């Protein structure tokens, strides 16, 4: 189980940095976007596999949550209904849930933003959904094109969402820190007059392509 210190450190890195640092894996589809771009997210995945246009299993999942969990919902990419809104947001906050990532839509956006609850979704739909269909909680799911297991670490920011295997968290933190250090060195050299072509050794590639 990752420590709170590890989670805080991982959260301090951008999702793009984490994605690159762990070998360009774990990035959800770019269609999964933050409801409020300034809001950041990190937590353990509490996964939900639910029927399109039905949120029964989402209500149930909240009763199974532990403080610090992030709901990761495979809503099958359904875009003509919002299975998450202000009531579920309040219920999730009371349960200590740190945020939501859903391959589907949400509604009541202004209230959710006022609550300060991080939400990452495909977009908004004012249409209601049902509460009648079966589903599963705490099972492997596909969300935003990425396989997510219960307990995986989910990180979200303005750029998107990335999933980290908790067994790799120390390795990913070290690689993310090294990547940030490398990029800071590049910035300093750019300030000194170097070009990205020089710093990234792109001249041989340009020469091979006949670019002059």
Automatic annotation (TrEMBL):
Domain of life per record: Bacteria
| One Pfam family linked to the record | RraA-like
NCBIfam families, per the entry: PRK09262.1
Q: Which PANTHER family match?
A: 4-HYDROXY-4-METHYL-2-OXOGLUTARATE ALDOLASE 3-RELATED (PTHR33254), BLR3842 PROTEIN (PTHR33254:SF16)
Name of this protein = 4-carboxy-4-hydroxy-2-oxoadipate aldolase/oxaloacetate decarboxylase
Organism name: Modicisalibacter luteus
């Amino acid at each position: 189980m990752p420590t709170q210190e590890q989670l805080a450190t991982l959260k301090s890195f951008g999702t793009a940095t984490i994605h690159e640092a762990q070998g360009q894996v774990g990035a959800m589809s770019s269609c999964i976007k933050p409801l409020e771009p300034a809001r950041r997210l990190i937590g353990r995945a509490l996964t939900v596999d639910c029927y399109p246009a039905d949120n029964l299993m989402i209500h149930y999942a909240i009763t199974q949550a532990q403080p610090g969990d992030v709901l990761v919902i495979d809503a099958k990419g359904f875009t003509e209904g919002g299975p998450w809104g202000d009531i579920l947001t309040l219920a999730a906050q009371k349960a200590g849930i740190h945020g939501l990532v859903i391959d589907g839509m949400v509604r009541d956006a202004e209230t959710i933003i006022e609550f300060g609850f991080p939400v990452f979704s495909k977009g908004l739909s004012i249409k209601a959904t049902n509460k009648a269909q079966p589903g599963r909680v705490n099972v492997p799911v596909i969300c935003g094109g990425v396989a997510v297991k219960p307990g995986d670490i989910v990180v979200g920011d303005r750029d998107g969402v990335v999933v980290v295997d908790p067994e790799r968290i120390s390795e990913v933190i070290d690689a993310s820190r090294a990547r940030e250090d490398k990029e800071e060195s590049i910035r300093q050299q750019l300030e000194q007059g170097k070009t990205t072509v020089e710093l990234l050794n792109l001249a041989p590639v340009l020469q091979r392509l006949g670019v002059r």
